[in-house]
Design a protein that fits this description.
The complex is a heterodimer. The longest helix of chain A is centred in the middle third of the chain and has 39 residues, at about 85-125. In chain A, α5 (about 85-125) packs antiparallel against α7 and α7 (about 140-175) packs across α9. Chain A is mainly alpha-helical. Chain A is built from 10 helices and no strands. The model of chain A has no long low-confidence stretch (mean pLDDT about 90). Chain B has a single domain, classed as P-loop containing nucleotide triphosphate hydrolases (Rossmann fold, 3-Layer(aba) Sandwich). Chain B has helices at about 1-10, 50-55, 80-85, 105-115, 120-135, 150-160, 180-195, 205-215, 230-235, 240-245, 265-270, and strands at about 10-20, 25-35, 40, 65-70, 70-75, 90, 165-170, 200-205, 215-220, 225-230. The chains are: A mainly alpha, B alpha/beta. The interface of A and B includes residues 126, 127 and 133 of A.
């Protein structure tokens, strides 16, 4: 029993130390953020590596999620005779929730783990130490561009995810389930609101982008310089970011609903 | 006196104390690195050679005492001042530490692109000149993964030289090299030191190569300088510790067996347990 309490205390202390270290790291990074905009090429390189290279996964993900969403919701809506609303239902779900959340989760799995491994390997092979000794600050040269690129990429990827989802839903609804094309788009036009749905979804994806990018660079930067350490950093990035995104989504949705 | 020392010595380690947790690494370390010479820092594993390197480059801060580079305190000091000092140093890591996403050319050009606003044409000429000096001008297009261990260190040397530093620190430059690559590195260290008039610190435990290369040798042991002098003087030293290290004897002041209870005592205590 004593051992269990001691273990819990030890675990909590470890969590508090890591959380504090994460906050200090984020605060330390702040002054580098405006400076890095003076070197847009560094951001562009990272936008390609972590943003553009995630595009195929995001597009496929969005397409199939949209298709499944329409298939699943169609039966329920048919019971109430509102099958024409299937497009609006799927679009709202995608723009408000699934787009930002699933795109951020896929981003964490594809780009977050890759960034954590890359930065961790740079640490393990003394590349970061070499930069510091060349009087080049790795926070500016390595970390800041990756964070900025992540923050820009996630909202764009979420938008593409939602667009592909709606397109997938459209294909299934009109070509398989026989929903009228005009009714499909008409309901979307009426029900999906810019402020309530699109802006809220966008805000969520920005917050998820910040969380996913910061966690990836933090884990990579603090990875143990061993093969197991780098692998752990990649795993921790995906696990912690995923839990964090789902928790933040719940809090942000709660806040939005409270306003309504 | 301090000003005169600063002229004669590029690096001065003044009464430095440093511990890692409970373990004391240095307790009152004093040493001077003379300007314009190749100084070898020798010592058995765990003597604190790499810690000393980290103290000189400001990666670690001494608990007490100071490290001076060209008359200026290295650490503690502001981020900008530390980076200004580091711009006058070049460090050659044991494994080269080349940036793996950049080519040989990109690696050597990296400090120039980061610290200067030189036109690309001039950068190209400087980089090719430095690569020519290490014999790898024709390898400029290759990626680090396509290079051998010796070539990686030569590229890293070109990168360390590209900003024309006052000091170059070599961390175990001979580890894991074949005799030809080792000969090349020895020649390059000596040549760059003499032709460019820089100061070199070679952190190593290779006694034989040190004899061929160094003007001055410092032997670290027990957190202090155990001996210093020319490599010949060290070889003729009377101290048992220096002789054990220079001759590579397995037993002596640094014992073969880890200190602790005798074999018989341990066997008996384990039998009773």
């Amino acid at each position: 029993m004593n051992l269990t309490i001691r273990d819990c205390l030890h675990g909590f202390r470890g969590f508090a130390a890591t959380f504090g270290s994460f906050q200090l790291f984020s605060i330390r990074l702040l002054p580098y953020i405006p400076r890095i905009f003076a070197r847009p090429l560094l951001i562009t390189e990272q936008l390609y590596t972590i943003g553009a290279l995630s595009l195929v996964l995001i597009m496929f993900g969005g397409l199939f999620v949209g298709m499944v969403l329409v298939l699943q919701s169609f039966t329920t809506l048919a019971e109430f005779g509102s099958t024409d609303s299937v497009g609006a239902f799927a679009s709202q779900a995608l723009v408000r929730e699934l787009g930002p959340v699933v795109a951020a989760l896929l981003f964490a799995g594809r780009a977050g783990s890759s960034v954590a491994s890359e930065v961790g390997l740079m640490r393990a092979t003394d590349q970061i130490a070499a930069m510091e000794l060349m009087a080049v600050d790795p926070m500016e040269r390595i970390i800041a561009p990756r964070v900025i690129a992540g923050v820009i990429s996630v909202p764009l990827l979420a938008a593409i995810f939602s667009a592909m989802g709606i397109f997938g839903g459209y294909l299934v609804a009109t070509q398989v389930l026989g929903v009228d094309t005009g009714a499909f788009w008409g309901h979307i036009n009426v029900r999906v609101e810019l402020g309530q749905d699109v802006v809220n979804g966008f805000m969520k994806s920005v917050v998820f982008g910040i969380s996913a990018s910061l966690m990836a660079v933090f884990e990579g930067y603090h990875a143990q310089p061993t093969a197991a350490g780098i692998s752990n950093a990649a795993t921790r990035t995906v696990v912690i970011t995923s839990v964090w995104i789902l928790l933040l989504d719940f809090i942000m949705t709660g806040l939005t609903m409270a306003k309504v | 006196m301090l000003a005169r020392n600063a002229i004669a010595n590029l690096v001065e380690v003044d009464d430095v104390h440093f511990s890692r947790g409970e373990r004391k690494i240095f307790s009152g370390l004093d040493m001077q690195i003379p300007r314009g010479q190749v100084t070898a820092v020798l010592g058995p594993s765990g003597a604190g050679k790499t810690t000393l390197l980290n103290l000189i480059t400001g990666q670690l801060t001494p608990d007490k005492g100071a490290v001076l580079f060209d008359g200026r305190v290295v650490c503690p000091c502001s981020h900008d001042r530390l980076y200004a000092i580091r711009r006058q140093m070049g460090v050659l890591f044991q494994q080269g530490a080349l940036l793996t996403h950049l080519s040989v050319f990109g690696n050597v050009a990296f400090p120039l692109r980061e610290h200067t606003k030189l036109p690309e044409e001039l950068i190209r000429q400087i980089v090719l000149m430095k690569l020519h000096a290490v014999g790898l001008r024709t390898a400029w297009k290759l990626m680090p993964s396509q290079l051998s261990g010796g070539m990686v260190r030569r590229v890293a040397l070109a990168r360390a030289l590209v900003m024309d530093p006052k000091l170059i620190i070599y961390d175990e430059p001979f580890a894991g090299l074949d005799p030809i690559s080792m000969g090349v590195i020895v020649r390059l260290i000596r040549q760059t030191n003499d032709t460019l008039g820089i100061t070199s610190i070679v952190v190593t435990h290779d006694v034989e190569e040190t004899g061929r290369l160094a003007d001055w040798s410092i032997l670290l042991a027990g957190g202090k300088v155990a001996a210093s002098g020319t490599p010949d003087e060290l070889r003729r030293a009377k101290s048992d510790l220096v002789r054990q290290f220079m001759l590579g004897s397995s037993d002596g002041p640094v014992p073969f067996h880890r200190p602790g209870p005798s074999y018989a005592e341990q066997l008996l205590s384990m039998a009773h347990a």
